[in-house]
Amino acid sequence: MDKGITVCFLARPSFDVFSTELYSYIKNNLDNCFSGIFIVSNKKEYDFVANKIPNRIIYNVSLFMKEHWTEFDLDSLAFYEKKYECAPIWKYIYSDRFLIERSYNYCVHIAVGLFRFFEKIFDDNKVDFYYSETIATLQCYIAYLVGKKRHVQYVSQMCARGNLDFKYHYFVNDEFQHDAGLQDNYLGLQYSKEEWNRADTYLSDFEKSFTPPESEKVVKTYPKINKNFVLGPIKRFIKSFDKDLNDPCSYMYYKNYKDYTNDIKFWVNFQKYKHCYISPDYSRKFVYYPLHFQPEASTCVCAEKYEKQLFFIDSLAKSLPADVVLYVKEHHAQLGHRDPHFYQEIKKYPNVFLIDPFESSRKMVEKSYAVVTLTGTVAYEAMLLRKPVIMGGSMVFDTAPGIVKANDIYGEFMNIMKNWVQPSRDDVIKYLCALFRTYKRGNAYSQNYHEYLSDNVQLLGDSLYQYLRENMN
Fold first, then answer.
1. What's the total number of domains in the chain?
2. Band of the pLDDT at 51, cuts 50, 70, 90?
3. In a domain, 447, yes or no
């Protein structure tokens, strides 16, 4: 290659460790011309990266914001909205869980500051790729938008789906976590006998029994009184004096010392609505809708229209035929997180029932008339069993056989079901063959990527470097 590759790495926790180790591996083992630039949120993160990789270019978001804060105004936001063809800009601002409940002026300042920040980075340096987590914050989203205009490609390594999640990964280059290597015409491609047998075996094993993905294994626990009921308020008080947590220019951490008393809030909430859950009556004809954990990218970014799940449930409940009910199952990790008002509203619908969070999702899929989700992995699992699947958002498996994307669910459910055709088993195998072609060895879950595979840094580094070389402009 004529010139080295330059990658701008996200380096906030846990990507501070993840990105610096990937960079060091590629630089020291694969390409000594490889260059890295790092994005941090505050001085603490800056010091961590500087100590890990001396003499690197590091950009501090909060420091940049602080130096230019008075320059960020509404006129500038309108200018950037037009310049980067991202109207309405509020769609992107609302995708960020850290900006929920912030003031209007604060959101304007942060958005303008991030546009200015990434313009400076991409103008001052010849950057080829921006390496990040999945687009889950406004910071990543604006880097993606600014990068597209400047030919800086966004890239992320995502955990594979199903029970392969901590062993394999695939590449993402858009905001909806689509598999960058998956070919749309997968049904018309030719597959080797080895590829077919691998996919057939995987599907057969899934049809017989189901091992949940490592990232979704359920431990049956409820919010309970613990030591944080005493320590939480103390930690909250102490951390309320933390300089970084009181810095409005470090927006992802601003005032998050309040989270130290969440255990108390979650326990109180759970006591208010734990009586709402029932066991499903499998003799009834039902649609299965598992609630999403919130706030996170799977709804805020990938299902922006229906991110308010009560709106989606309302539209769906009003669209079901007379003999079909809606079973809504809470995400086990969300117990106590939602405001009790959420459940009170659901209980107002006569044809909607809240199901025990620890009821077997596999059994509910098998017994259901159809599975409806925004972007959940349950769509992939139901597709493997060739059940009707309707998705209200965009996600990696939204082109899989038998999955229907519904941009508007209101009044459309019956038409979708009338026109739905069950895919053949061979079509599902072809999809899996195409999917497995894109999978690379390595656990890309940044918070525990050292686990499961002892040579994980090498696997991910080799995979990333190959991708970068193949996709250089």
1. 3
2. very high
3. no
